[in-house]
Specification:
The chain has 13 helices and 30 strands. With about 500 residues, the chain is of the alpha+beta class. It has 3 domains: about 5-205, no CATH class; about 210-295 and about 460-490, no CATH class; about 295-460, no CATH class. Strands 2, 3, 4, 5, 6, 7, 12, 13, 14, 15, 16 and 17 form a 12-stranded mixed β-sheet that branches. A hairpin with a 2-residue loop joins strand 18 and strand 19. The longest helix has 20 residues, at about 225-245. About 40% of the residues are buried. Bound molecules: zinc ion (2 copies).
Length: about 500
């Protein structure tokens, strides 16, 4: 059993730590741009200064640098949690590790800072920590990963010059920084640190600047301004709900830059209109009964939005029960096969819409029965049964019957099986039989699929929001339509 003393963490506690913060009336966040065992950073023109956290040691670079961890094995330990206290300067000791998390209290977002106190022993292997805990009758849940964020990294410049710096490192760049050969440049403040034996580079910026790098990638940078604002409020609300879930806190940042959170691409496609739309509705989020609303959104519902409880099988959410998006669909029951087919065959002309909107609205696809069987992991298919459609017409349960029976019980799985379709609001061309509400289809060798809508169909429909904006409706009206029973609020910052 290898023991290590926690004096390692003195340095960690003495310096000011990065992390989410309220500064100058803004919420500052760490958005992860890359997590790798090695980073390459190329300044786009201007020199960059890389400095240690205390600012005493810094280096200037004008060309590409590569960064690697000197001793990756030593960047993580397993400690046994002794007790948990609220952060208090007087209680700082060498056995404590700070932890930061978001909490929602009394209609406000708070950043809670705590010190985790550990037993004086630490372990380089989880198994050793578990064995020790078992011997001492300590619950295994108290064995936790402890990340040494002030490990040393090696920086090598183009000329092969080497220098060593202690993390976390700050980079401030007036010009673009290109990371790991990516063609997207990012400007501003960055943090490099090591977490779980990996190197991280995070963009450190206010929530509002982050949103100005998200919105246009979601809804298009030439969208009518009220649609941009509706998208901004939805994206801001979504970001806050992700923060409250603390989904990336253990990873060393607040949000990732991919679809897992929201796609963040910095200045890519950003323009004056996007920036002023974000500013015009600054800090506004949607609340439902005093808590951050689930402001999920999708490309195109196809006519009606669906209920979150049908699509994701959770409890019903009052503001996500589904609404009518295109008035002509209102009188139809899209959960019935007859009306679903009728509506999919109805041509909808949308004045002023772009090609992606029209593509997301109505589409056609083909798949062979063989390919469908293969996607579902079976040899052949004799019969297809559609068990249930949601209120948007999306198929929620579908059976493929052949050498085996495969039950597809979610719109997502159904879309995947049929070859990554835009949505599960579709029908298979040709005849069908109805047997006690179940649609029975004998598949031909090639299936023609006709559909409407793109995405899961819950919450705001982007195509619908664009259309409402073109009709002169305000972003407040757009949000009230797709998220009924929510209110817009901006007093959520607990500084
Ligand atoms: Zn994420
Ligand atoms: Zn819609």
């Amino acid at each position: 059993m290898r023991l290590k003393h926690f004096c390692l963490f003195i340095a960690l506690l003495s310096g000011a730590l990065f992390g989410a913060d309220f500064k100058e009336g803004q919420l500052w966040l760490e958005i992860n741009l890359a997590t790798e065992s090695q980073l390459s950073i190329r300044p786009g023109g201007n020199q960059i200064v890389v400095s240690e956290n205390d600012g005493l040691i810094s280096r200037t670079f004008s060309g590409e640098i590569s960064v690697s961890i000197v001793n990756p094995e030593a960047t993580m330990y397993y400690g046994i949690l002794e007790r948990r206290d609220t952060a208090n300067e007087a209680e700082f000791d060498t056995l404590a590790v700070p932890m930061e998390s978001f909490v929602w209290e009394q209609n406000q977002l708070k950043i809670k800072r705590e010190l985790l106190h550990f037993l004086p022993q630490s372990f380089s292997e989880k198994q050793a920590a578990d064995e020790y805990a078992a011997c001492q009758n300590i619950p295994l849940s108290k064995v936790m990963e402890v990340h040494v964020i002030n490990s040393t990294v090696k920086l090598v410049d183009k000329a092969g010059e080497v220098c060593y710096l202690e993390t976390p490192l700050r980079i401030s760049s007036a010009g673009d920084l290109f990371i790991n050969g990516n063609s997207l440049g990012f400007t501003g403040d960055f943090i490099i640190k090591t977490v779980k034996r990996k190197l991280l580079i995070n963009h450190y910026l206010p929530l509002e600047s982050y949103l100005a790098g998200v919105v246009q990638n979601e809804i298009g940078n030439s969208s009518p301004v009220e649609a941009l604002k509706a998208q901004t409020v939805a994206a801001r609300t979504h970001a806050l709900s992700l923060l409250i879930n603390n989904r990336h806190k253990a990873d060393g940042y607040d949000l990732c830059n991919g679809t897992h959170c929201q796609v963040y691409k910095g200045k890519y496609l950003q323009n004056k209109m996007v920036i002023s739309a974000v500013e015009d509705c600054a800090a506004e989020v949607l609340l439902a009964n005093g808590v951050i609303a689930d402001a999920t959104y999708h490309s195109s519902c196809g006519g009606k939005t669906d209920a979150s409880s049908a699509i994701w099988k959770g409890k019903p959410v009052k503001h996500l029960n589904g609404v009518t998006c295109i008035a002509e669909a209102d009188s139809l029951d899209l959960s019935s096969e007859v009306d679903a087919r009728k509506w999919i065959d109805t041509k909808i002309e949308v004045a002023g819409s772009s090609s992606w909107e029209r593509g997301a609205m109505a589409w056609e696809a083909f798949i062979s029965a063989k390919e469908l069987a293969k996607n579902a992991g079976i040899a052949y298919i004799n019969r297809i049964e559609i068990g249930q459609r949601g209120r948007s017409g999306r198929i929620l349960s579908l059976k493929l019957i052949g050498d085996k029976t495969v039950n597809l019980e979610s719109e997502y799985k159904i879309r995947q099986a049929f070859g990554n379709l835009y949505s599960s609001f579709f029908y298979i061309s040709g005849s069908y039989r109805l047997d006690e509400g179940v649609v029975q289809i004998t598949p031909k060798s090639s299936l023609q699929i006709k559909g409407k809508g793109s995405g899961h169909g819950v919450g705001m429909c982007q195509v619908g929001a664009l259309q409402m904006a073109r009709y002169g409706l305000s972003y407040q009206e757009i949000l009230a339509h797709y998220y009924p029973d929510t209110i817009i609020s901006k007093g959520w910052m607990n500084e």
